[in-house]
Task: inverse folding
């Protein structure tokens, strides 16, 4: 775990987005090590769509950050109780949205198999 990411999915996805753009991030070395994997998706948009991470991006595929983004300058862990609450709520919202998206996909697949 990198201190500038702190196991946050929004910051991880921003690092992946930057990787596709050729920009740097705290995860650049790791992401480049696995470039063959990321090349499978060709674009950031394809990566997001495949993994159903759409709840973490807007219509332009810009990352929706859980907390104000500072270009990876600070420790990514929440600094205040309010930030912790906001981070927890945003994380739960993302998980619920993605779970709903996955369930819809699975239900669509199971109905077409009958």
Result:
């Amino acid at each position: 775990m990198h201190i500038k990411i702190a196991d946050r999915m929004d910051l991880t996805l921003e690092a992946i987005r930057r990787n596709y753009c050729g920009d740097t991030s705290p995860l650049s070395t790791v992401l480049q090590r696995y470039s063959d994997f990321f090349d499978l998706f060709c674009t950031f948009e394809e990566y997001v769509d495949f993994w159903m991470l759409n709840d973490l991006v807007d219509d332009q595929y810009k990352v929706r950050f859980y907390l104000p983004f500072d270009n990876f300058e600070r420790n990514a862990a929440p600094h205040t109780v309010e930030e912790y609450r906001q981070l927890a709520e945003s994380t739960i919202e993302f998980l619920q949205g993605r779970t709903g998206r996955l369930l819809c996909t699975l239900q669509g697949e199971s109905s077409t198999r009958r």
In short: The helical segments are 9-21, 28-33, 35-39, 44-50, 81-113. Residues 14 and 79 are 20 Å apart (CA to CA).
